[in-house]
Amino acid sequence: MYLPSYFKGEWAEHATPLIRADPFASLISTDDTGLPFVTHLPLLLQDQPEKPEGTSPVLLGHVARGNPHWRYLQARPKAVVTFLGAHAYLSPQVYPDLTRVPTWNYLAVHCTIEAVIIDEPAAKDALLKKLIGDHEPAYAAQWRSLDADYQRKMLAGIVGFELRVTAFECKLKLNQHRPEAHDATLRMYESGSSHQRTLAEWMVRLKNRKA
Fold first, then answer.
1. What domains appear along the chain, each with residue ranges and CATH number?
2. 130-156: average pLDDT
3. Distance (Å) of CA 190 to CA 91, 187, 202
4. 101 to each of 89, 94, 192, how far by Cα in Å?
5. Is the pTM of this model over 0.85?
6. Do the beta carbons of residue 81 and residue 110 sit within 8 Å?
């Protein structure tokens, strides 16, 4: 993506909390005709406290077996995953003069990934338990109590994958290059929608980092 240096974010400080806050992603690769194929799905950024520094982050997820995307990933493992965080319109009213135009502020992460397909039942069960533990830990007991044949049927209906992040771009577009509008933007966003309030929090976060 187009990424001016003043909008660039770092992995641990910015991309990681953005992914954890908004884990619903777009997985993008090519189909057998060479056209882009997109699946919208939640992905879990796996904790790796036991891994040495510099180890590639891993995203975990799965699709329905009927979704051909897993076959595309199996044939062509390199793909792109995007995460879109809070975003909102910005009125030119925030500027001290009238020779300005509107814009749109947003938070986004793009990851280049290498996919590894997970289709062995026990491995898929372990993957599902990680996803359950992240989204609804209380459901784990209900999953374990389901009939074994039903569990096998459900597991057979999905294909899991690990997506190893080999490169990333994190964009924090908050008009950092327009300091004359910072205070007015912050006031506008702090009293606005949930997306606007989140952007305001990130504006303060970035400002405090520079202080």
1. 5-179 (2.30.110.10)
2. 86
3. 14, 5, 11
4. 11, 10, 20
5. yes
6. yes
